[in-house]
């Protein structure tokens, strides 16, 4: 075939498509209808005996036309919360501020990461020393196991919210009641704790926290797309909305109240637990390595002894 004939003659196939009718009783989605027409056109070209290179060219044009019409979802905004379970300012943030993203659906544009380690320290023998004592270490590990064992974010947060609500009202020793309150099985979490996996998760979170640039100065330490919000963390939703690159602005962003302007001066106490705050010697002496196979109930008894 000559090139002129190969290019001109397939216009007959376009004419055939234009005269093709579809049963009015059959409703076909626009995209599906387009695909059907494309297939009919290629069948027509093949029946006319045109060379494979021409069919390949048509296929490439079809693929390009389809791909160009597919919209790409905008990337979610990453929000990371570095915290420790018994810091009162962390529990306040997790009970009174962070849950709002689940209520106003802002979570749909957020990739939320929780890092339960905070201002703890890892000793040379891999003992973890927590700022607020052994009970904080226990709850840090429990929440690390929750984040690992249960992949569903809403399930994770419903349990962690329950625990932090008890911390907020100084009843954290009742944290096990959250299994009954949420209806979640405690066994996979206890297995994680007893097996030593929880300790390994703690060490992983320690590395992630210690690798922060710039280094964290206190908790709660909130970052949006890797950028720390410092003591303006309570206004994190405003930063999320500014960072979101989607064409359609979420309703939650439009409904946000004006940012809270902090009047805290440098010489006033900030609502944070400082990283450089020293741990009392009595707490440090009470720390010991928790061997694998130790349940949290035994650990709680050891703490109380």
UniProtKB/TrEMBL annotation:
One Pfam family named in its UniProt record: GILT
Compartments it resides in: Secreted
Source superkingdom: Eukaryota
Entry's Gene Ontology molecular function annotations: oxidoreductase activity, acting on a sulfur group of donors, disulfide as acceptor
Keywords: Glycoprotein, Secreted, Signal
GO cellular component: extracellular region
Recorded family membership: Belongs to the GILT family.
Matches recorded under PANTHER family: GAMMA-INTERFERON INDUCIBLE LYSOSOMAL THIOL REDUCTASE GILT, GAMMA-INTERFERON-INDUCIBLE LYSOSOMAL THIOL REDUCTASE
Full protein name: Saposin A-type domain-containing protein
Source organism of the structure: Aquilegia coerulea
Upper taxonomic lineage: Eukaryota, Viridiplantae, Streptophyta, Embryophyta, Tracheophyta
């Amino acid at each position: 075939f000559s090139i002129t004939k190969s290019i001109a003659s397939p216009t007959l196939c376009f004419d055939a498509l234009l005269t093709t009718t579809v049963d009015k009783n059959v409703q076909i989605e626009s995209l599906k209808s387009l695909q059907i027409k494309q297939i009919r056109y290629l069948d027509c070209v093949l029946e006319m005996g045109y060379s494979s290179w021409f069919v390949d060219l048509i296929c490439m044009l079809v693929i390009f036309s389809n791909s160009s019409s597919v919209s790409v979802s905008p990337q979610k905004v990453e929000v990371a919360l570095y915290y420790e379970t018994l810091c009162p300012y962390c529990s306040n943030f997790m009970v009174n501020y962070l849950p709002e993203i689940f209520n106003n659906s802002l979570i749909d544009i957020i990739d939320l990461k929780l890092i339960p380690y905070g201002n703890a320290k890892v000793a040379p023998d891999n003992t973890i020393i927590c700022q607020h004592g052994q009970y904080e270490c226990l709850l840090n590990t429990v929440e690390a196991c929750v984040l690992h064992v249960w992949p569903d974010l809403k399930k994770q947060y419903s349990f962690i919210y329950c625990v932090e609500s008890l911390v907020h009202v100084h009843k954290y020793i009742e944290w096990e009641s959250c299994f009954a309150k949420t209806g979640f099985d405690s066994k996979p979490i206890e297995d994680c704790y007893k097996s030593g996996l929880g300790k390994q998760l703690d060490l992983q979170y320690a590395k992630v926290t210690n690798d922060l640039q710039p280094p964290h100065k206190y908790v709660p330490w909130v970052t949006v797309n890797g950028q720390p919000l410092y003591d303006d963390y309570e206004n994190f939703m405003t930063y999320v909305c500014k960072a979101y690159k989607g064409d359609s602005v979420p309703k939650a962003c439009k409904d946000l109240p004006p940012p809270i302007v902090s009047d805290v001066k440098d010489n006033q106490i900030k609502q944070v637990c400082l990283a450089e705050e020293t741990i009392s010697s009595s707490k440090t002496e009470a720390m010991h390595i928790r061997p694998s196979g130790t349940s949290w109930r035994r650990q709680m008894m050891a703490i109380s002894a």
